[in-house]
């Protein structure tokens, strides 16, 4: 079996007001054996300095934007940041790009039209600037964006999906591309409280057509999307339970073809607190020597 990568996707790294707290968390994750840290680049014109601070303060762990939106950060700005990071820390920074969502983009006054064409044009500009395809990945859900991630990048970084989608994505991009889905989890063995925590997360995402349209392709319906998600949908999207049970849920994505799973530990929506204990427990289950 090929080596699998176990990564972290956590809003804490952008939400923390303390650069030192963010760095301390990154150092611990590196020591535990996690491969990469993913977090959003936000909606500004530049990629936050926090990505570079984590690279500068660690020695091995990768850092990736999950995602940088193509509507806000220009190709020139993104390429310059990626090139600077590559010079300082070869092979450790990965530029994750995504088309975001109409409600978020248009809230800033931008006209959200033809997101696929927008992504193609953005990649064309990155090519012209010399940023190699293997140094970027796309937040791909549907068939066309998955094919684009196969043809124009190192691979795909799907978000808010099921293991069934991971299997479809692997088929779409083929064996030679990185497949690194984000998977949110709740480390809590109590069904009622675990699902309540999960629904704090799912309730917002289930209002976004990009995600619900993708889930519909796999047979989910409006009934599943109501009230923060049916139990069946919550359980399919968000592994919960003991660390062993969560690890078993994540294993489904590896078996479906993921090279790397970016674990987001849900802790009630508090982006200022890092769920260190959960990541320690999951490392023992998922990482050799963790």
UniProtKB/TrEMBL annotation:
<dbReference type="GO" id="GO:0005829">
    <property type="term" value="C:cytosol"/>
</dbReference>
<dbReference type="GO" id="GO:0016705">
    <property type="term" value="F:oxidoreductase activity, acting on paired donors, with incorporation or reduction of molecular oxygen"/>
</dbReference>
<dbReference type="InterPro" id="IPR011251">
    <property type="entry name" value="Luciferase-like_dom"/>
</dbReference>
<dbReference type="InterPro" id="IPR019922">
    <property type="entry name" value="Lucif-like_OxRdatse_MSMEG_4141"/>
</dbReference>
<dbReference type="InterPro" id="IPR036661">
    <property type="entry name" value="Luciferase-like_sf"/>
</dbReference>
<protein>
    <submittedName>
        <fullName>Probable F420-dependent oxidoreductase, MSMEG_4141 family</fullName>
    </submittedName>
</protein>
<feature type="domain" description="Luciferase-like">
    <location>
        <begin position="17"/>
        <end position="126"/>
    </location>
</feature>
<dbReference type="InterPro" id="IPR050766">
    <property type="entry name" value="Bact_Lucif_Oxidored"/>
</dbReference>
<dbReference type="Pfam" id="PF00296">
    <property type="entry name" value="Bac_luciferase"/>
</dbReference>
């Amino acid at each position: 079996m090929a080596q699998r990568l176990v990564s972290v996707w956590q809003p804490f790294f952008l939400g923390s007001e303390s650069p030192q707290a963010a760095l301390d968390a990154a150092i611990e994750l590196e020591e535990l054996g996690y491969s990469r840290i993913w977090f959003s680049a936000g909606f500004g014109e530049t990629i936050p300095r926090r990505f570079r601070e984590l690279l500068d303060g660690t020695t091995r762990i990768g850092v990736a934007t999950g995602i940088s939106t193509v509507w806000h950060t220009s190709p020139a700005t993104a390429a310059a940041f990626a090139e600077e990071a590559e010079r300082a820390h070869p092979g450790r920074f990965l530029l994750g790009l995504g088309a975001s969502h109409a409600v978020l983009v248009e809230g800033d006054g931008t006209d959200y039209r033809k997101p696929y064409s927008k992504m193609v044009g953005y990649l064309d500009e990155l090519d012209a600037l010399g940023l190699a395809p293997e140094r970027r990945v796309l937040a791909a859900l549907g068939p066309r964006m998955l094919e684009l991630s196969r043809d124009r990048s190192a691979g795909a970084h799907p978000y808010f999906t099921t293991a069934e989608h991971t299997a479809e994505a692997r088929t779409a991009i083929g064996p030679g591309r990185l497949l690194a889905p984000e998977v949110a989890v709740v480390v809590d063995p109590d069904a009622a409280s675990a699902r309540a925590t999960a629904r704090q997360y799912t309730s917002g995402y289930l209002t976004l057509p990009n995600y619900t349209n993708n889930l519909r392709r796999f047979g989910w319906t409006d009934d599943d999307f109501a009230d923060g998600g049916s139990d069946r949908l919550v359980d399919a999207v968000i592994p919960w339970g003991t660390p062993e049970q969560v690890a078993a849920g994540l294993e489904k994505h590896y078996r479906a073809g993921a090279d790397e799973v970016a674990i987001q530990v849900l802790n009630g929506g508090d982006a200022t607190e890092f769920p260190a204990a959960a990541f320690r427990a999951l490392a023992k289950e998922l990482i050799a020597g963790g």
